Amino acid sequence: MTTFGRTDVQPVIQVRDLTMAYGDIDVLRGVDLDIHRGEVFALLGPNGAGKTTTVEILEGFRQRSGGEMSVLATDPERGGDAWRARIGLVLQSWRDHRRWRVAELLTHFATYYPDSRDPAELLALVGLTDQAGRQVDRLSGGQRRRLDVALGIVGRPELLFLDEPTTGFDPQARHEFHVLVERLARDEGVTVLLTTHDLAEAERLADRIAMLVGGRIRACGTPSELARRAAAQAEVRWTADDGTPCRERTEDPSRLVWELHRHAAGPIADLEVRRPTLEDTYLHMVHREADGTDGADGTDRDADEEAPAA
Ligand SMILES: Nc1ncnc2c1ncn2[C@@H]1O[C@H](COP(=O)(O)OP(=O)(O)OP(=O)(O)O)[C@@H](O)[C@H]1O
After folding, report:
1. What is the mean pLDDT of the chain?
2. Following DSSP, what letter does each residue of the chain receive, concatenated?
3. Which of 27, 45, 155, 265 could staple 113 via S-S, CB 3.0–4.6 A?
4. What is the CATH architecture assignment of 10-81+190-232+277-295+305-310?
5. What ipTM describes this predicted complex?
6. What is the pTM of this model?
7. Beta carbon of 45 within 6 Å of any ligand 1 atom
């Protein structure tokens, strides 16, 4: 890749060939990402895919094994306090601050930043006004998570990392959180990198989704691009004369069905033609990785799952 480096509109996050190994276990095997200002970008992947590892490297908390990257025009391994103040993190709940009251905690954290949000406005923004005087350890799980979000944005970050932010949210809280993230991106130009296992959440919230499976980005695009790509190949299923279940992916299902009929002695058992959804494609990738049926060099990937990172 020769285009790495500064351009007129340098992405907020640019990653090339990122690798990470823990001991002799390769977790990231060459990740490329370009995330632009004001974009809500979802990094989707199953447990253990390497999402948190990727985010921790981007946040400067973990040293990568290889590759190049820039986050807000800085290599995270060399980011100082001024760089860190431009980034908001929503990680784990603030267990160390259990005895603090909600408004006190926000007011305290606001003093760390040069242009922090007003704590009362922030409480209203995340729907915690009624809990302002409550101790942190008396909040429900969903309220705790909203407080995490409030703490993540108190310093008006340009870039916000949300690591599985809606875990424990009820549907209403999840909806309100989605509206909040959209507002931050649309009205304030905040760039958001969100990790999730939840495809529905990624589809609802993200401008673009990258699917991280087996240490590589297996697909990347807008939700509608990915859905279109997933549906481009139909899946034909049937049962062969000897009882073997068969399935084949094809862009021309009518031709395949015609061929099957031409060679069959009689009716074709259990014949079914379906267009995969984005969820089918994602689950197919995840299961294939779990089965170990994915080639180590990635050459057996289906064409419809191949996508550039940009
Ligand atoms: N400090 C560490 N030392 C050794 N292995 C680690 C370490 N941190 C993570 N791993 C391993 O690296 C892999 C990726 O972990 P990571 O937490 O990045 O995945 P994830 O996609 O965020 O998973 P989840 O969705 O479960 O949070 C896992 O197999 C994990 O066990």
Report:
1. 85
2. ----S--TT--SEEEEEEEEEETTEEEEEEEEEEE-TT-EEEEE--TTSSHHHHHHHHTTSS--SEEEEEETTB-GGG--HHHHTTEEEE-S--GGGTTSBHHHHHHHHHTTSTTPPPHHHHHHHTT-GGGTTSBGGGS-HHHHHHHHHHHHHTT--SEEEEESTTTT--HHHHHHHHHHHHHHHHHH--EEEEEES-HHHHHHH-SEEEEEETTEEEEEE-HHHHHHHHHTSEEEEEE-TTS-EEEEEES-HHHHHHHHHHH-SSPPEEEEEEPPPHHHHHHHHHHHHHHT-S-TTSTT--GGG-----
3. 155
4. 3-Layer(aba) Sandwich (3.40)
5. 0.96
6. 0.81
7. yes
